[in-house]
Amino acid sequence: MAKRDYYMVLGVPPTAQPDEIKKAYRMLSKKYHPDLNPDMKTVSDEKMKELVEAYNILNDTQKRKAYDKQPQFQVKRFAKSSARAKVDKSAYTKKPVYTKEPSLLERLLSPFLKKGPGGESGGGLDPKQADVHFTLGLSMAESESFYDQAKGEFKLTLKFDPSHKEAAYNHALMCYKLGEFEEARVHFQKCLQLEPEDQMARKMLNILHDPMM
Prior knowledge:
The chain is an all-alpha fold. The protein is built from 11 helices and no strands.
């Protein structure tokens, strides 16, 4: 079993500030210190080693950056050889013509988003709408301030295309980055249902394991 994710060990989201990390470490080290748990010394010793290792990495700016840059923590984009990417590329070879200059958001959404009688976006399989929401999700995932919105866009992508593997992974990843570790585990399991050979999803499940389960 791989070592648990350092953020999960300290119980803080990957967006946590240094002071939050220090506060979490102090609180947990007091809780699990062997001297305070004489009846559970072996367990406490192991827990403290795990806490110290996590803190030493996340409290060091350079080590934390290196940890965060691991492949499994990066959002997935379309594979260049995917059928969807090929379709998208051909779809945008012709420059669209507008009778008036629309806003950037209108240009992005107007060709795809269908409205129902009540003004709500239509449901059902619609790869074009899925791609619009996926693109918005990728853009929002570039900033920590918009992780929650990115999560929502990837969820909408899956609404319109349940087989969208990249969106499924990114949705699970946003849960992780928001510190929703249990929800992240559930959705990474769904990733493996879509793609049993997804090594990144498998790695995330390994580091997000709960020792109490």
